[in-house]
Amino acid sequence: MKKIFIIFYLIIVNSYLFSQNYTYKSPSRDGIGKIYLGREISKIMGHQGVEWLERNSREIEEKPLKVIKNLNLKSSDIVADFGSGSGYFTRLIAPKCSLVYAIDIQKEMHEINNSILKKDNINNVKFILGENKETNLPKNKIDLLIMVDVYHELEFPYEIMSNIYNILKQNGKVIFVEYKGEDKKLMIKPLHKMTLNQIIIEIRNVGFKFEKNIESLPRQHMLIFSKS
Question: Closest Cα partner for 224 from 83, 71, 112, 86?
Fold first, then answer.
């Protein structure tokens, strides 16, 4: 009976702690009014923004091939492309690893991604429809998970990152690519940018260890965190 009471107590305490991670205010122009560790969460970019994701100038502006090179992928790796969208990074990652889980919360994005993958004859990609608080990724399968310009849009960042921490392999890594919040001249909506310190504070908050800041991208931070 005592053990049952302790378990029930811990569930209540954990639920209370979860609720304390967020505060609320009137939404900013591009925000949802939800604050996490001092940062207002931005609105998501819908599938209507696919042209922005697939724009021809992306390689010149953001150097995505340099991002892929810095992942140091092995042919045996299983990678999760979180917030895969139209599949821009899915298509770059897939030829370099064993399997890619393309995860997105928008079915329309999966449909776009899948149609392009078929044209490119890429067949080592599995699609997963994510949820606001759950990734729905398999446990102990993922070697590396990458989020490119996605994390700032998560409605429940604590819950999602906790879920990712739990499903990753013990030596798994998470890579974040986010527009530099410190760059005031960068013509990206303010809530769609993040500072280096803010990213580190938020990801450490769920237990990840900050490993490396790759500073070679012109417009974005590229940060590596490990589970171990």
Answer: 71
| Residue pLDDT, tens place only, 21-66 | 899 999 999 999 999 999 999 999 877 767 868 888 899 999 999 9
Whole-prediction pTM: 0.89
CA atoms within 13 A on the CB side of 116: 17
pLDDT (tens digit, 9 = 90+) per residue, 60-93?
999 999 999 999 999 999 999 999 999 999 999 9
**Which tokens sit at 151?**
């994390």
- Residue 147 neighbours by CB under 8 Å, 6+ apart: 82, 83, 174, 175, 176, 177
Sequence-ordered strand ranges (E) for 16-113? 22-24, 31-36, 39-42, 78-82, 99-104
Residue 46: predicted pLDDT = 74
Output 59-67 pairs: Cβ under 8 A, ≥24 positions apart.
61/218, 61/219, 62/217, 62/218, 62/219, 62/220, 63/216, 63/217, 63/218, 64/88, 64/89, 64/92, 64/148, 65/92, 66/216, 66/217, 67/148, 67/177, 67/217, 67/222
DSSP structural state of residue 43 = P
